[in-house]
Every structure is written in C-alpha cells, then in structure tokens.
Amino acid sequence: MSAQHHSNNHIDSIHADSVSTLIESSTEFFNILCQNIGENPTREGLLRTPERMAQSLCDMLNGYTISPKAALGSIFKDNVCDEMIILKKLPFYSICEHHLLPFFGTLSIAYIPNKSFVGISGLARLAEIFAHRLQIQEQLTAQIADSIMCELDPKGAIVVCEARHLCLEMRGNHKQSPIITSALRGNFKADSKTRAEFMQLIKD
C-alpha cells in the first residue's frame, strides 16, 4: 500500500495481512497476561478479546499509512491570503508510546501563508495522521508545526495542544490535570504581537 495514497479524506486502513498477524501475536500475549493476573482467557466474554484488541490498535494506529504531504492534499497558489489561518480546538485522540494508554484533547493550529495554502480539511487530516501513531504530546505538537513549515513554506506556524492523559489519571499520580504544549515556528516565534493575536483568537 502506497504511503502517498488516501481516499475520501480518511486515513487508509492497515493491510488485512498485518491485522491477521497482529491477532495471532495478541492472542499469545493476552493468554499470558490473563494467566499472570489470575483471569481465564477461555471464558466466553474473553474469547474474541485478542481479535478486538488487535483491530482496535490497527484503527487507532493507522497514521503510518499516509505521508504529511498526502494528508494536506491539494496546495493552492492563487489568490493567497497573507493573514492568519486558524483551525481552532480540533478534537483528537492518540496513544501514549510509553504506556499504550490514550491521551486526548484539542489542537489549535495556525499558519500565515507565504506563497501557498491548503484547505482546512488538510490541516485536520495532518493532525489526524500524527495523532494516529504512537506518540508523546510534545512530539505530536512539534510534528504538526514542522510539517506545515516543510510542505507549505509559510511565514510562520503555531500549534497549541491541550490534553488529558489516562496514563496519568488511571495510574501513577491519578491526577486529572490537562497538559498544554506548544510549537512556534517563524513569525509566531519571532513576533510577540503575532503570538498574542493567535492566543486571543483561540480563547473560549
């Protein structure tokens, strides 16, 4: 499957052969897990759990099947505006690469076009492909900003991510405290007025 291909504005599914292989591996892992925690992996409610677990992981981690360039889609160069373009508080879900537990929240993404721009749906797809990978929040935030800079060569880009982490809330400190990360590039990093305008515009 080509990493460049995408259709109907959705990320491609992971190939069926990969899913089958993952189901086999998941079954072995799940049986060992159940034995060690005192559960019976052969009881009715758990018989198809390895299959469901494998399929769920494939659905949540299918962001590797498309490149950032393909996710952004068509790039337009006519009548380019020179003002800030913002995608505000886009919901996302991702998987922590340390504990394989979800983290989720919102992404606010903006850039100032230079010679090219994309449709807003392209920004949403770009965020989705990076969110649908094994991630940490800091890396997710930076990858989106860096891809916009690389593919569109804008005057600047900024990404602000606010997220809750189940690896923090379900284990460890058991705290429900959102984490905020940001990535500033170009004008957004160099010009405090540009940053302030963005922050004002994404306020609730």
Automatic annotation (TrEMBL):
Keywords: GTP-binding, Hydrolase, Metal-binding, Nucleotide-binding, One-carbon metabolism, Zinc. GO terms for cellular component: cytoplasm. Its EC number is 3.5.4.16. Signal peptide: none annotated. Residues 32-202 form the GTP cyclohydrolase I domain. Pathway: Cofactor biosynthesis; 7,8-dihydroneopterin triphosphate biosynthesis; 7,8-dihydroneopterin triphosphate from GTP: step 1/1. This is GTP cyclohydrolase 1. The lineage of its organism: Bacteria, Pseudomonadati, Campylobacterota, Epsilonproteobacteria, Campylobacterales. The gene is folE.
